[in-house]
Automatic annotation (TrEMBL):
Coiled coil: none annotated. Residues 1-49 are annotated as: Disordered. Signal peptide: none annotated. Residues 1-29, 37-49 have a biased composition (Basic and acidic residues). Gene3D superfamilies: 1.10.720.10. This is Rho termination factor-like protein. Residues 48-80 form the Rho termination factor-like N-terminal domain. It comes from the Bacteria. One of its GO terms (biological process) is DNA-templated transcription termination. InterPro entries: DUF7218, Rho-like_N, Rho_N_sf.
């Protein structure tokens, strides 16, 4: 059974799994706290299939600095690393 990380973490098991895979506390918490945490979706287009505008908006949502000067590939790389 997963350790209880308090009410700030909605899915403790998923949070621990993400931390074990090397994700930062911030990123693991953000993923574990999504409303559909723990459910597979698979309906989103891959980053390569998205437009630069879509990638920019996603980068804006997650707070990636310097996004306005990034190329499509730079946005993809930044989103994958964030």
């Amino acid at each position: 059974m997963a350790e209880d990380h308090g009410k700030q973490i909605k899915n403790d098991e998923q949070y621990e799994g993400l931390r074990d895979r090397g994700m930062s506390k911030e990123k693991a918490a953000r993923i574990a706290n999504t409303p559909d945490s723990g459910h597979k979706g698979g309906k989103a287009d891959t980053y390569e299939e998205r437009s630069v505008e879509d990638l920019y908006e996603q980068a804006k949502k997650v707070g990636i600095d310097g996004r306005s000067k990034m190329t499509k590939q730079e946005l993809i790389d930044a989103l994958r690393e964030h």
